[in-house]
Write a structure and sequence with these properties.
Layout (H helix, E strand, L loop, with lengths): L2 H6 L2 E2 L1 E3 L1 H18 L5 E7 L3 H10 L5 E9 L10 E5 L9 E9 L3 H11 L5 E9 L12 E5 L5 E2 L15 E3 L4 H7 L6 E2 L4
Parallel strand pairs: 1-11, 3-4, 3-6, 6-7, 7-8
Antiparallel strand pairs: 2-10, 4-5, 9-10
The structure holds inosinic acid and magnesium ion.
The site of inosinic acid has 16 residues, from strand 6, helix 4 and strand 9.
Length: 200
């Protein structure tokens, strides 16, 4: 394969297929429905990566939920968080007395969720828990208690199903492994078409 065709049409190796992801989300939805039989349940989607997961998880939950969005930025386009966290979009709905479930795409260093947990606990909710689609436990730098985990994955940088690298690859159906370094991709790739490897 030439460098040019790789740049416009990379075949990224699939780590988790769309089918595996959807099956696991159905199980998570059933468990969450059982765990919260009553009260106001607020699903807080952490933008942007978690929005694909949120829409599927919310529909797998068989009780009424509130849906709200929070924008968080950990600075920079590199593959690891810098440690600085900033709220770029706050919630629309009050959390007072509510059961809150933070919906996140992936827990990596734990910096984002450690910060967010402390922030939301100040808003006098009844409870705050975390649901994440992916967890990379090997990478943890800050303690985070995660109540619902879709998949524990090895320390590889993944994209697809909402997860990006420099805002790309979010709309892949599968979760794929991106093996190149941040520098190489950021400087060599323009936005273009892409496909994934064979489906499982
Ligand atoms: P943490 O604060 O280091 O736990 O980082 C969490 C955020 O980093 C996630 O919400 C993602 O936006 C991003 N992130 C961490 N690992 C990956 C990955 O493998 N692929 C894409 N984004 C990631
Ligand atoms: Mg994110």
């Amino acid at each position: 394969m030439t460098i040019h065709s790789f740049m416009t049409d990379p075949k990224l190796p699939v780590l988790l297929s769309s089918r595996q992801i959807q099956a696991r989300i159905r199980e998570m939805g059933e468990q969450i429905s059982r765990d919260y039989p009553r009260g106001n349940l607020h699903l807080i989607c952490i933008l942007k990566g978690a929005c694909f997961f949120l829409t599927d998880l919310a529909r797998a939950i068989t009780r009424d939920v509130f849906v709200d969005f929070m924008g968080i930025s950990t600075y920079g386009k590199s593959k690891s968080s810098s440690g600085e966290v900033k709220v770029t979009k706050d919630l629309d709905i009050s959390l007072e007395g509510a059961d809150v479930l933070i919906v996140e795409d992936i827990v990596d260093s734990g910096v984002t969720l450690n910060y967010l947990m402390q922030l939301l606990l100040q808003r006098r909710p009844n409870s705050v828990r975390i649901a994440t689609l992916l967890d990379k436990p090997e990478r943890r730098q800050r303690p985070v208690e995660v109540s619902y985990v879709g998949f524990r994955i090895p320390d590889k940088f993944v994209v697809g199903y909402g997860l990006d690298f420099a805002e790309r690859y979010r709309n892949l159906d599968d979760i794929c492994v991106l093996e190149e370094t941040g520098e190489t991709l950021a400087t060599s790739q323009e936005a273009g078409s892409f496909t994934t490897g064979p489906r499982r």
